[in-house]
Every structure is written in structure tokens, then in C-alpha cells.
From TrEMBL:
Regions crossing the membrane: 457-479
GO cellular component term, pick one: cytoplasm
Localization of this protein: Cytoplasm
Encoding gene, per UniProt annotation: LOC115708773
Boundaries of every Mur ligase central domain copy: 154-340
GO biological process, one term: regulation of cell shape
Name the record gives this protein: Mur ligase central domain-containing protein
GO MF terms, alphabetically ordered: ATP binding; UDP-N-acetylmuramoylalanine-D-glutamate ligase activity
Record SUPFAM superfamilies: MurCD N-terminal domain, MurD-like peptide ligases, catalytic domain, MurD-like peptide ligases, peptide-binding domain
Major subcellular site: cytoplasm
Pathway: Cell wall biogenesis; peptidoglycan biosynthesis
Alphabetic keyword roster: ATP-binding, Cytoplasm, Ligase, Membrane, Nucleotide-binding, Transmembrane, Transmembrane helix
């Protein structure tokens, strides 16, 4: 793989980044879609999986003039043609729930697959290998994104939602209109829908900041081509689907597959799976590393990020001392977001981004400070922790604080083990006041180490847990916990 001479430790001469003019108005505000709004007229599209991404793909296909069959195995879902959001397209739309005839897919001109649908289901793998146009929702949307829109894409096992959120906040604070979504929040199909000439919403954006999951890249993308892309890290996750770490790394690395030379690719400097995976790519990329040069190094003591990418003329320091988000891992998240935004080439420099650091906020329910009470206790909502590594990183950022932690999220059984791994949190949790969890797997995992667990553990279950996720420790039902937390016998 030719890498424009940007290897780790490269001694390429440094080009100083010169201040640029204000980003406001730098990118064209008149945006035209890559295709006409009716480019799929006369074609039939099958969309499989009717979660948020699938429904967005259905809307986009209908807006592009296609007739659509919407498919989901869940028979309890409502028919889309009876949904008010799809009423005006009811003549071109049919919903099929539960078992269905495979000819529906064979007869479709295209098959669009939602991220939650495995290629081993519905004969999709065979269909794709037969030459049928089978594509991800992400790629279906990317096909019609205007070329003038810069795409900043982020993937990785942990931290991708935070980096995407930070990048979106940086851009918006600097007056640059940005769509923030993908695997986080709004599917990319919703962004593409806004760009169609027939769309009356009138909302235009200059940058799309897109969180990308490995599931969205199971099918190699043809049209999704970021201007900047980052793989933040790679630890065991989703192995029930990807089987091996090498497969997982290869899938993650597909985020770079359509990028041309001079585009910025950011990776961790010490992951041999990713290093091997990118060796198989034929593209020419400007590689930058998290933890090495060219790329990002952080002085945690001084709270300064050093950003050096000579090929792009980047050699600057980003002060992080004003950041209010919990955890030193968020210094890296902020620095990666900053380098990614600068790498877009939209007239933003590191100095300008420095003015946004103080206002950065994490995604909701992820190491989110709910309040600091009169007893000096910090109440933390981490109810959307996605796995044990993400939670551990957040808890390490709480060193020196006494906290009550709402611990939740989707606990995943580790490959080849009976445990979800949350028992490794016992040591760091013991530094705090109390743990509340709404996840039974997490409760059981921590309880296996109960003799070593010295603080109260409360488990909320049934419908009550859904309520608690919203009121997040603010209910009078937690008076009992507060009394326990503030009692003198708890250290």
C-alpha cells in the first residue's frame, strides 16, 4: 500500500498551518444533489429491516421515484402504508412482515439492507455473490449526496459517538452547518433526503459527520467516500457476527476503501489487526496515527494535544485544559475530532477549534454529569455504556471523585466466555459511593465479585427501569439511596 511517504516516525519537513479566513461562507451554500429526485423511476427496491435506518431508506427510495417493498421478520410491526409519514406514497409501497417469498428479493432491481440484518439471513449473501445489487442503507444514501458536501466518518469499538458529537459541536460553533448522524441518531438516508431537489425542507448542510458501525460495512460500499475517516480503536466486540478479530478489523477498514489520495485516514498506532487490514487496501491515503506522528500526541499533564500532519500542512497545539467533559480519554476524543475537522480542508484551523473546547458536551447518558450535590457527591448517568471497555474508560476518568453511577447499556457476552466482563469494574467502582444498574447481566456480573464489592448496588427492573432511564436519579424513589450514599459508614 503506497502511503504518500507518511509512515510512523516520518521526518517529512513540517509545513506550518497558516490561519485562514472565517469558515462562514467558505463552502458553497447552494447544494445540488448528485442525481435527479426521480432517478429510480420505474425501478423496484426491496428494503430489509424496518428499524430507524430501514424506514429512512424506504422514504428515500420513494422520494427517488421507486416502488418499494418493505420487509421485516417482526410480524408485530405496523404496515408502513398505514403510517401517516408514508401516506402520500401508499400506492408505491407494500409492507411484508414475517415470512416472505424469496422471489420478492430476486425480482427487485435493488436490495437495501438495514444494519441490524445479517447477510446470512434471507439468502442475502448468495444474492450478493450472484451479482444482484445488494447494498447497505449507508451506501444507498451516499449515492446521492452532493459532491460538494464533505463527509467526516468515524468508526471504532469505543468512542465513536463521542468523537462524532464533538466534531459536530465544533463545526456548528464555528458557524458551519453540519448533519450529525449515521449510526448515531439520524440515518444518513435522512441527510440524503434533504438534498433532493424535490425536498421542500430547504435545510442544507456543508458537512456530514457520520458515525459508522461495522454492521453498516458488512457489504462493501461503492459510493460512501469520506473526505476524512477515522478508526479510533479495535477491541473484541460483535464477534458473534464477525467471528474473528481479523474479520472485524477488515470490516472496520472498509471505511477507507473509496477514499482517494490526499484524504486523511486516522488510526490507532498500536493495533496489529488494523495495520494488517489496511495493508490490503490499494488506495493511497494520508495516514495519521493516534499516539504517534504524523498524527496526534497528547501531553496529559499539560493538557495539550500536539497535532502534526506535514502532508496537510498541520503542525499545531490544541489546549485542552478548558474541557469540561469527564475523563482523560476525552482528551483524545476531542483531539481526533479537531484533527478530523481541520483535515476536511474547509478553512478551519486548530486555533479556531480551540475556542470551542470549553463548550464540548458528551452524548446524552454517557458519563453525563446529572448534578453535584451539597455533600460533594457527583451523580453520573452512564446508562448507555455500550460495553465494558467504554465503561472502564469512563470510570477511570472519575478518579478522585466520589460518585453515584447509573450503570447500564447493552451488555454483551464476550466471545468464548460466559461473562460480560463487567466484574473487572469492581476495583474502580469501589472508589465511589453507589452503583445503580438497570441491566440484569451487569448486576449478575458485578455480583459474582460481591465479596470484593464494598459499596451499595441497586438493581432497578421491569417497567420501572424504562422510567428511570428518563428521570435519571431525580425521583423521590431514590431517597433511600441518597440516605445510604451520604451515611458516614460508607467511605
Amino acid at each position: 500500500m503506497k502511503l504518500n511517504s507518511l509512515l510512523i516516525g516520518s521526518q517529512t519537513p513540517i509545513l506550518r498551518l497558516k490561519p485562514t479566513h472565517s469558515p462562514n461562507g467558505f463552502l458553497p451554500r447552494s447544494i445540488r444533489a448528485c442525481v435527479s429526485s426521480q432517478d429510480l423511476q420505474g425501478q423496484s427496491i426491496a428494503v430489509i429491516g424496518l428499524g430507524k435506518s430501514g424506514k429512512a431508506a424506504v422514504k428515500l427510495a420513494l422520494a427517488r421515484g421507486a416502488s418499494v417493498v418493505a420487509i421485516d421478520h417482526n410480524q408485530n410491526l405496523g404496515l408502513l402504508e398505514e403510517d401517516p409519514h408514508f401516506e402520500k406514497h401508499s400506492g408505491d409501497l407494500r409492507t411484508v412482515l414475517g415470512n416472505f417469498d424469496g422471489d420478492l428479493l430476486n425480482s427487485a432491481d435493488r436490495v437495501v439492507v438495514s444494519p441490524g440484518v445479517h447477510l446470512e439471513n434471507y439468502g442475502l449473501n448468495s444474492l450478493w455473490h450472484s451479482g444482484k445489487q445488494v447494498m447497505s442503507e449507508l451506501d444507498f444514501a451516499a449515492e446521492i449526496l452532493p459532491k460538494s458536501i464533505k463527509v467526516l466518518a468515524v468508526t471504532g469499538t469505543n468512542g465513536k459517538s463521542t468523537v462524532v458529537t464533538f466534531a459536530g459541536q465544533m463545526l456548528r460553533q464555528l458557524g458551519i452547518e453540519a448533519f450529525v448522524g449515521g449510526n448515531l441518531g439520524n440515518p444518513l438516508s435522512e441527510a440524503a433526503l434533504q438534498c433532493l431537489p424535490s425536498t421542500s425542507s430547504g435545510h442544507k448542510f456543508q458537512v456530514a459527520v457520520v458515525e459508522v458501525s461495522s454492521y453498516q460495512m458488512d457489504i462493501p460500499n461503492k459510493y460512501f467516500s469520506p473526505s476524512v475517516a477515522a478508526v479510533l480503536n479495535l477491541t473484541p466486540d460483535h464477534l458473534e457476527r464477525h467471528k474473528t478479530m481479523m474479520n472485524y478489523a477488515m470490516t472496520k477498514s472498509r471505511i477507507f476503501s473509496n477514499m482517494t489520495d490526499a484524504k486523511l485516514a486516522i488510526l490507532p498506532s498500536d493495533n496489529h489487526y488494523l495495520n494488517e487490514a489496511i495493508d490490503g487496501l490499494k488506495n493511497e491515503l494520508n495516514l495519521s496515527w493516534i499516539g504517534n506522528y504524523p498524527g496526534i500526541k497528547i501531553d496529559l499533564e499539560e493538557k495539550i494535544a500536539n497535532l502534526e500532519v506535514p502532508a496537510l500542512g498541520i503542525d499545531s497545539q490544541l489546549k485542552l485544559d478548558a474541557i469540561k467533559v469527564i475523563g482523560t480519554h476525552n482528551y483524545y476524543n476531542a483531539a481526533v475530532a479537531a484533527l478530523s475537522v481541520v483535515g476536511l480542508g474547509i478553512g478551519v484551523d486548530v486555533e479556531a477549534i480551540g475556542s470551542t473546547i470549553e463548550k464540548l458536551r458528551p452524548p446524552l447518558h454517557r458519563m453525563q454529569i446529572v448534578c453535584n450535590d451539597s455533600h460533594g457527591i457527583t451523580w453520573i448517568n452512564d446508562s448507555k455504556a455500550t460495553n465494558v471497555d467504554a465503561t472502564y474508560a469512563g470510570l477511570m476518568g472519575l478518579k478522585g471523585r466520589k460518585s453515584v453511577i447509573l450503570l447500564g447499556g447493552v451488555a454483551k457476552v464476550l466471545d468464548g466466555q460466559d461473562s460480560i466482563g463487567f466484574e473487572r469494574l469492581v476495583e474502580v467502582l469501589n472508589n465511589h459511593r453507589c452503583v445503580i444498574t438497570v441491566c440484569n447481566l451487569i448486576r449478575k456480573s458485578i455480583s459474582t465479585q460481591y465479596l470484593e464489592f464494598d459499596i451499595p448496588l441497586f438493581f432497578l427492573f421491569g417497567q420501572f427501569q424504562l422510567i428511570m432511564l428518563h428521570i435519571c436519579m431525580m425521583s423521590v424513589l431514590l431517597v433511600r439511596i441518597v440516605r445510604c450514599v451520604n451515611s458516614e459508614y460508607i467511605v
